[in-house]
């Protein structure tokens, strides 16, 4: 695994989650940021990608256009369930996700999503989408790989971490991510016959940017002490 990728998928936050040593405040801070991403930035990002589907293109491309619309619609349906799910987890395990200010890393991530979806091509947006979901899947699979045997004495935070991790490491989610990769590759092949070197480099740049943003999105140890809205 390349070091820059492991920085995103094996971050210290994730290691602490996997060993169940993550503090409840730090988990709540992250959940708050993820809600901003999921409830606001992600639907806008997907909506802009849908608006780029070329429905006035050649008839031979219509099948891929319909497949793209179906996949992006599934993304919207999924993120609605996702937001409801982790709000429910927060409530069940007494994690206060309403007392935090937005982190700079969150603003940077959501701004880049808006930029790519607004000025980039549909193909670029799909690569960005696949990269986000792939990094997320690999990160939580790493968390799960570190879990100790479950104990009846585990606290609320440990229970919340297990519930969240199990949700994000399902076979269903893995298949979803694989389908996004296939879809992104189909669009790349349609636009770049012969896989032009410059086009490949552009897609690699998008992937690297997502990995960078994901790395910064995990809160560092101690951030929860200074980002509570109650301190302002």
TL;DR of this structure?
With 232 residues, this protein is mainly alpha-helical.
Model description:
This protein has 232 residues and is mainly alpha-helical. It contains 9 helices and no strands. The chain has helices at 3-9, 12-18, 24-50, 62-92, 104-119, 122-146, 156-167, 171-191, 197-217. α2 (12-18) packs across α6 and α3 runs parallel beside α5 (104-119). The model has no long low-confidence stretch (mean pLDDT 93).
Secondary structure: elements and pairs:
Blueprint: H1 3-9, H2 12-18, H3 24-50, H4 62-92, H5 104-119, H6 122-146, H7 156-167, H8 171-191, H9 197-217
Helix pairs in contact: 1-9, 2-6, 3-4, 3-5, 4-8, 5-9, 6-8, 6-9
Distance between the termini: 41 Å
Put simply, the count of helices is 9
H-E string: HHHHHHHHH
Number of DSSP-assigned strands: 0
Shape: elongated
* Biggest pleated-sheet summary: none
- Percentage of helical residues? over 70%
**Structural class by secondary-structure content:** mainly alpha
Q: Approximately what portion of the residues adopt beta-strand conformation?
A: under 5%
Rg, Å, rounded: 19 Å
Task: State mean pLDDT (0 to 100 scale).
Answer: 93
The poorly predicted ranges are none
């Amino acid at each position: 695994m390349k070091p820059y990728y492991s920085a995103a998928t094996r971050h210290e936050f994730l290691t602490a989650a996997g060993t169940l040593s993550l503090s409840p405040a730090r988990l709540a801070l992250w959940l708050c940021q993820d809600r901003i991403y999921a409830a606001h930035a992600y639907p806008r990002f997907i909506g802009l990608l849908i608006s780029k589907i070329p429905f006035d293109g050649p008839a031979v491309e219509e099948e891929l256009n319909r497949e793209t619309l179906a996949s992006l619609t599934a993304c919207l349906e999924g993120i609605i369930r996702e937001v409801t799910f982790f709000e429910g987890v927060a409530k069940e395990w007494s994690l206060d996700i309403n007392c935090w200010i937005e982190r700079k890393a969150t603003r940077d991530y959501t701004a880049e999503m808006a930029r790519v979806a607004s000025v980039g091509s549909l193909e670029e947006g799909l690569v960005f989408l696949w990269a986000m979901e792939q990094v997320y899947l690999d990160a939580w699979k790493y968390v799960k790989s570190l879990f100790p045997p479950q104990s009846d004495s585990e606290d609320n935070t440990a229970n919340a971490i297990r519930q969240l991790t199990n949700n994000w490491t399902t076979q269903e989610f893995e298949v979803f991510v694989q389908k996004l990769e296939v879809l992104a590759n189909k669009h790349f092949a349609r636009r770049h016959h012969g896989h032009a070197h410059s086009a490949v480099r552009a897609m690699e740049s998008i992937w690297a940017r997502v990995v960078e943003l994901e790395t910064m999105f995990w809160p560092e140890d101690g951030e929860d002490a200074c980002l509570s809205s109650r301190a302002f």
